[in-house]
Design goal:
Blueprint lengths: L3 E5 L25 H14 L4 E5 L8 H12 L3 E6 L7 H14 L3 E5 L10 H14 L3 E7 L7 H7 L5 E2 L11 E6 L34 E4 L4 E3 L13 E4 L5 H9 L2 H8 L1 H12 L12 H9 L2 H10 L4 H13 L1 H4 L8 H8 L1
Parallel strand pairs: 1-2, 1-8, 2-3, 3-4, 4-5, 5-7, 6-7
Antiparallel strand pairs: 8-9, 9-10
Helix pairs in contact: 1-2, 2-3, 3-4, 7-8, 7-11, 8-9
The structure holds iron/sulfur cluster (2 copies).
Length: 357
């Protein structure tokens, strides 16, 4: 059930991070109009299941006054609102306070600040500090979202020292209703400098099997690109995985596109088995196609699958063979809806389905 509408309001950004999934930067021009944002919020609101509108990009603060108006528009419709930002605008404590206070008046409910080696190449870390202080003073919960490589300077320890023991680590499933919470993850090698990364550069998670899970966000969150395309991928840039783009919100309503997404084979596959299920299928169909031994997470594997021509060819030639299996798995999910409680599962549905068969 759709819960989160993510509006990627622009691909323009004052900086150009090495591993940016949407290849944002000062060179990009795409931007949503306020009129379009309002239409999408209205459509999402009328679905009756959407709780949160996320404004991201690129850098959403480049919308200027339209950002405050958009937040207010969603707030009036009783939707929660979150802004994901690199804090380029927090050039002093006073400036950060002024801006966050205005957002509070517009009804904003949550902020996410990106903070890691790749953002802090361009943005002084003091911006994050001032933005955090202003968020706390204003009473808007703020999460610091950080990603690293094996040799990153900005690590959990670095952040804990920098914030002098104020930080607590985000726990999976936790509601973000506090200040000074941080989430640290592994960098997925996508973006303009990703080709240079080797296996040794990557930060491998403790949970070695984390890439074998179903996609946790598919069909629960949707992303609208600045050009108005609907993508079901919240992990890495939708442009990287064309299979996750359902159609244009200029041509179809959100409802029509969601119905299409719900009936899409690849999308159901990602939701039920994750990219790991697709990888297993490919390996059975084409023994000459090989994959890495491990991935940092399921988005990493997903990117590998959909960026390879050989893999895509096998998929497009034989994806229909999965119809009976996925139909059974989906029926199983429908029958166990109460047990699952609408939550994403950590295990592929195929395993749960076979265990109970
Ligand atoms: S990762 Fe964020 S801050 Fe960095 S270039 Fe992309 S959109 Fe801009
Ligand atoms: S698993 Fe694939 S579809 Fe899901 S969020 Fe990651 S990249 Fe996107």
């Amino acid at each position: 059930m759709l819960q989160t509408l993510v509006l990627s309001v622009t691909y323009k950004c004052p900086i150009k991070c090495r591993y940016c999934g949407v290849n944002a930067g000062p060179h990009r021009k795409e931007k949503m109009s306020l009129q379009m944002i309002k239409r999408l919020i209205d459509e999402a609101h009328s679905l009756g299941t959407v709780e949160v509108v996320v404004f991201t990009g690129g850098e959403p603060f480049l919308l200027g006054e339209d950002l405050y108006k958009a937040v207010k528009y969603a707030h009036v419709r009783k939707l929660l609102t979150r802004i994901v930002t690199n804090t380029f605008w927090a050039t002093s404590r006073d400036k950060a306070f002024y801006i966050i206070n205005r957002l509070k008046d517009s009804g904003l409910t949550e902020l996410n600040f990106s903070c890691d080696d790749f953002h802090q190449e361009f943005i002084p870390i003091e911006h994050i500090k001032w933005a955090c202080e202003a968020a706390e003073e204003t009473g808007i919960p703020a999460l610091i979202a950080s990603k690293g490589l094996r040799k990153s300077t900005i690590t959990p320890g670095y952040l804990e020292d920098y914030f002098e023991g104020k930080l607590t680590r985000f726990q999976k499933g936790q509601e973000n209703n506090k200040n000074y919470v941080f989430n640290y993850g592994t960098t997925v090698p996508v973006g303009w400098e990703s080709e240079k990364l080797t296996e040794k550069d990557l930060l491998w998670p403790e949970d070695a099997d984390c890439w074998k899970r179903p996609c946790q966000s598919v069909l629960k969150s949707i992303v609208i690109t600045p050009q108005g395309k609907l993508s079901i991928c919240c992990g890495i840039g939708s442009e990287e995985i064309p299979e996750t783009i359902i159609g244009s919100t200029h041509d179809y309503s959100l409802l029509e596109l969601l119905i299409r997404a719900n009936n899409d084979l690849i999308i159901n596959w990602l939701a039920l088995e994750g990219p790991y299920g697709i990888k297993t299928f490919i390996e059975k169909r084409a023994s000459d196609i090989t994959f890495r031994d491990r991935y940092v997470n399921n988005c990493h594997l997903c990117h590998d699958i959909f960026s390879r021509k050989d893999v895509r060819t096998v998929l497009s030639n034989s994806v229909e063979d999965m119809v009976p299996v996925l139909s059974l798995e989906r029926a199983w999910v429908e029958n166990h809806r109460d047990e699952l409680g609408g939550k994403a599962t950590d295990k592929p549905i195929t395993e749960q389905y076979q265990a109970s068969a």
